[in-house]
Amino acid sequence: MILILKPELDSESEDRVLDRLHELGINAQLVRTSGRAVIVLKSDVSEEPNHRFTQIEGVVKAVRLAAGYSLASSIKDKSVAISASSAGKSLKPSFIGSGHMPLVMAGPCSVESAEHILEVAASVKEAGASVLRAGAFKPRTSPYEFQGLKEEGLEYLKEASKRTGLPIVTEVLSPDKVETVAEFADILQIGTRNMYNYELLREVGRLGRPVLLKRGMSATIDEFLYAAEYILKEGNEQLILCERGIRTFENRLRNTLDLSAVPLLKSLSGLPVVVDPSHATGSRAMVRPMSRAAIACGADGLLLEVHDRPDQSISDAEQAIDPGELAAVVKDMVAIVLALGLGAGSGDSEESAVEEKALFASVRSLSESI
After folding, report:
1. Is the pTM of this model over 0.85?
2. CATH superfamily assigned to domain 74-351
């Protein structure tokens, strides 16, 4: 259930509402979304009447969440293991979510050539990225724009992964291409246009491979979680949600980055949430500041477009940053994580917990030396 608060409430009044709920034995969290304060009730209140909550001073309305994403809402503190299948079994997986150090997924919008993807893969790894992103199949608004190198591009991506040890995240456009893309990709990406492609969602759910699901450009949070439910219902919990900006009346930027979605999604589900500031803003100059904001509000990672010569990128040149800027973003991320005490999860094993502590020590040293 979500409680809508009066817009004129100050922080003290909001705290009084939270205190009253806690007195009733209800676990609740305050979230700000679309300029309004709402309280998400995490406890089971299915047997409680709405008027019990609307009688609380400051509460305007009590809204029951649809039961349509019961699987997503039942997941708590999920972490997804990511490893480069083409690099062999010698490399240990990285983890995203559940308090782990945020991950950066970076690379060009499109695979342009074998030589180029190798160069970019090496440079993003050096800059601090943990996953290589690039598109082999490109869904473009105009049918006359570059549509990607397709299977040839997948081959180039696999070779780049093999040489660098970076796992691959790339987009799959249709159900009949899922198995083909899965032969090369470590994470299957469902783009914003395909969030409503339910047969595609079912197909990647059946596969059991990690999936990165992007929010539809006009999708509500509920609709986003319904889409996630299609994947979960097929038995695949290796799911990462991605906020990539929504379409609004604002036309100065490509989209509007809804950062309130990050804490809201985390209050409704334990799935990892990453942010794509590149597509969300469409502006190179906006990527670094919005990356900072994304990490500060709790994002489990970033999805960034990086090109060694951004102005010469075949697609989305205006939003691509260079490897030097990526290194600066990673430095910012480390500083924010350390300052706020984020990314200090318990890990998935005692060994991984020890490794993560060592990682924190190393990034602290790196941050101090830069």
Report:
1. no
2. Aldolase class I (3.20.20.70)
